[in-house]
Amino acid sequence: MPLFTGDQLADLSVLLPPLLRDADALGPDGRTVRVRLLQLAGWLMVQTRQFSAAETALERALSESADRMENAATINTLLWLLLRQGQLGKAHDLSVRWADETEPRISRATPEELSTWGWMLLRLSAAAIRNGQPGEADDAIKLASAAAVALGREYTPGNDFLRRFGPTTVKLKAAENAAVTDRPDLVLRLAERIPMAGLRSTSNNRNRHFLDVADAYAKTGQYADAFGKLEQIREDSPEWLPNQRYARDILTKLIKSRRTLTTEMRSMADAVGLPL
């Protein structure tokens, strides 16, 4: 888990194969461990754009899941996979179905139920905004915000950093929607209101948000601030950044804005795999 949460991809590439073999060897008694490991492996494969392997891992996790919450945790990552593949219609329909299936009675809902439902709504919002359905995206964000308010804090069910959910997470995703619809001024306004103190560096939330902020800075001509955000991400998650096409796109904008490149910019280009 420390390797996953720290985006230590090189170490995971060595450790993960024998872990998966060991989990298989446990047989029926190892079902819970095996499902959890397959969920994490699927997430890692999505992160590194190995989509076929991700689908295999997540399908295996679904086939062995024993309850609705365990299934929902896998579906959450599967929805992210569909979004990264551009399968927006499929992501939309699946997130609608699972948002309906996981919707709790808020007055009696447990924190895990609120977190699970909230994430399905965030995935629905992400699919809708990318699919040209801004009204539905806004509605989903509002419902997710209601779930977050009911929680009252950032909550991590079962110590699963992938399902951390709460008011801050909803704000991060609202800023992401603004970035997707090319509204950099709104991204920056929303970012000012997000409490970042104490928010750990996680690739599925904070780092993605910093890329949105860097992109907004670049689009509004604040090139030094944009580059500063990229440097901050590289310092916090040096193995995560090279897998982000978004980072390469942002750096391309910054390079085009300059007549000559600094040593730092050349180093960043090497880090994100941008040929000069």
Summarize the structure.
The chain is mostly helical and 276 residues long. Helices cover 71% and strands 0% of the residues. It has 14 helices and no strands.
Architecture overview:
There is one protein chain. With 276 residues, the protein is mostly helical. The protein has helices at 2-5, 9-25, 31-47, 51-64, 68-85, 88-102, 111-130, 134-151, 167-180, 184-192, 206-219, 223-236, 245-256, 263-272. The longest helix has 20 residues, at 111-130. The relative contact order is 0.08.
Per DSSP E runs of 2 or more residues, the count of β-strands stands at 0
Helical run tally: 14
Largest sheet: none
Radius of gyration (CA) equals: 19 Å
**What low-confidence regions span 5 or more consecutive residues with pLDDT below 50?**
none
Class of secondary structure makeup: mainly alpha
**Overall pLDDT score:** 93
Q: What proportion of the residues is helical, as a percent range?
A: over 70%
Task: Note the overall shape.
Answer: globular
End-to-end distance: 36 Å
Output the helix-strand order: HHHHHHHHHHHHHH
Beta-strand fraction estimate: under 5%
